[in-house]
Amino acid sequence: MSNHSRRKFLRNLGGTTAAILGAGPLAAMSMEHAHILQPVTRISANDKIRIGCIGMGIMGFGDVQTALKVPGVEFVAAADLYDGHLAKVKEVYGNNIFTTRDYRELLNRKDIDAVIVATPDHWHDTISIDAMEKGKAVYCEKPMVQQIAEGHKVIATQQRTKAVFQVGSQRVSSVSLAEARKRYLAGEIGRLNVVEARMDRHDALGAWQYSIPPDASPQTLDFDAFLKDTAKVPFDPVRFFRWRNYRAYGTGIPGDLFVHLISGLHFITGSLGPERVYASGNLVQWKDGRDVPDVVVAIFDYPETKQHPAFQMTLRVNFADGSGGGEYTRLIGTEGVMELGWEDFRIKKHRLPEAPGYGGWDTYNTFTKDMQETFVKQYNAKYTDEQRKPAQVSENSYRAPQGYDSRLDHFINFFESMRSGKPVVEDASFGLRAAGPALLTNESYFRREPLKWDAEKMQIV
Predict the structure, then answer these.
(1) What CATH class is the domain 49-171?
(2) Residues β-bridged to residue 192
(3) Sign of CA dihedral 265, 269, 274, 277
(4) What is the pTM of this model?
(5) Domain ranges within the chain, ordered by starting residue
(6) DSSP character at residue 422
(7) Collapsing DSSP states into helix, strand and coil, what is residue 183?
(8) Largest alpha-carbon pair distance within the chain?
(9) CA distance 241 to 289
(10) pLDDT digit string (tens) for 46-65?
(11) Beta-strand runs (E) in 220-325
(12) From its phi and psi, is residue 395 left (phi > 0), alpha (psi between -120 and 50) or beta?
């Protein structure tokens, strides 16, 4: 990092810098340090907010549990197409909770201020739009929509109704990602050129082979309502409880997992999205009737913009990883790499000296002895001792405190927006710009061709 870049880095860092770096000089970063990031508490419970949840599956129960940790929030109603989920709601939260199979009955209640939409992906747009039309604030799980055209309808509805609308990719509210963004914008890894991420699994539940309740039947489950406008098929509880495995109802690996990585990248860099997407993959292990792949690799070309340089991103998910799985996200720059975890990150820096060096795997060793001596004299005259120092290497890690939950911060941001009118951290436009490249990944995979994307207009070119 040049002196100019170093001054820019110090100038751009703010907020948590003093607490993280301490009183010592920046030069102290040349050795490894671990820093605990402290979230800012900003909860106001002056106004009670009453919520309903539509879709009481894994995410629905998790979201409600998290939302109720925010002071002043009360859970009053739930909608789901399976009676067993509604019975579980009353078992956990009490018999006074209003439950229904028809989400419209929930939206018609005047005592509900906000709804969580945690249904299968193909229902996100319809329920979100209906809820905003009814004057409800909406917290919609990711991906925001299943189809790109649906995303534009959600955006238009939010802009017209002025409803508070937030997409549920909680990572963008993380104190860790906020600090990562500051350090990226300060130039700490130099010029970004490559992003690579993988999220691999080798587990039946991780591959969406979710448990199916023994009482699932046409009497306990409204399968026809679940199908919505998709092709009519005979009653099949596997499709209902393992909907992520089917193109008709879900968005596969890209919509479930890539969208998290894309959201985080866009938050850190300020990017609007790539200009080209190409995907490949296969169905390797989980041949259980699903019609989506269990291995996907995608390449995203991001053009140079005012916010960032041109770079390439490669994402991979492998549900047939015989090593047992694992994940990482790496932003690689010319002076360092930022390695992201879920609530932590690490910056490893490798700053080259200005002098190129000589010897090693080099033509210098082919010179005669006299020519080597002449070369060294000229080299030493050209470069100062400072310029000839070896590459500068450092490593620093940053993590949220133990027990920190970014989903809770995401809900705090959502309810803050309802109470104060401040912008949400992940609005409908951000949601489509994250979902769009993920949806294009599916399109590219099934078409077997690269696709161009207009990130500004959010549409396929």
Answers:
(1) alpha beta
(2) 333
(3) negative
(4) 0.89
(5) 49-171
(6) P
(7) helix
(8) 93
(9) 13
(10) 689 999 999 999 999 999 99
(11) 276-282, 295-302, 311-318
(12) beta
